[in-house]
Structures are given as structure tokens and as C-alpha cells.
Write a structure and sequence with these properties.
Blueprint lengths: L13 H12 L6 H21 L7 H31 L2
Helix pairs in contact: 1-2, 1-3, 2-3
């Protein structure tokens, strides 16, 4: 029988999961302006926690992937606003 007195401790990956979820939801055009900043904030917090307290917090790779997705979509959104925003006004 298993020893019931010992508990297996798992790393807390909540912030990493939220970062990845926000990164994946940032692909949806309706949700990207809301989820990109949240993903970046959660990603910075998750990376900070995972590097300073690796025994308690985990998901460093997951948070880096989510943070990368959010930053790439942020840059693409800014590029689209700069390039296509004035072009739409000039076509009138």
C-alpha cells in the first residue's frame, strides 16, 4: 500500500498556463487587444517566479512560449496599425 503520510508536491504552473492561454487567444482578432497585454504581464510574472523559485513554480518553457506568441502578435498588430491605418484613410 502507498504511504498516505507523504504528499507529492507539484510545481505551480498557473501563471504559465494563463500566459499560454492568452498567447493562443491573441490570435483571434476580436480578442487580441485584450489578451496580448494580459499575456505579457502573466508571462513576465511566470518567468520571474519560475527563475527565482524553481522548486515552487514551474512551467518556464510554457511561459516563454506564451510570452513569445504575445510579443510577436503585439508587434504584428502595431505594424498593421501603422501601415494599414493611414493607407485606409488615404484611399478615400
Amino acid at each position: 500500500m502507498a504511504d498516505r503520510g507523504k504528499r507529492i508536491s507539484h510545481n505551480d504552473v498557473t501563471f504559465a498556463n494563463w500566459t499560454l492561454a492568452c498567447g493562443l487567444l491573441s490570435v483571434v482578432p476580436l480578442l487580441n487587444l485584450a489578451t496580448i497585454p494580459l499575456g505579457i504581464v502573466f508571462g513576465i510574472v511566470a518567468v520571474r517566479y519560475a527563475t527565482t523559485r524553481p522548486g515552487r513554480y514551474g512551467g518556464l518553457k510554457r511561459s516563454i512560449v506564451g510570452l513569445t506568441i504575445c510579443v510577436v502578435w503585439l508587434l504584428m498588430t502595431i505594424y498593421a496599425m501603422i501601415v494599414y491605418g493611414p493607407a485606409a484613410l488615404l484611399k478615400r
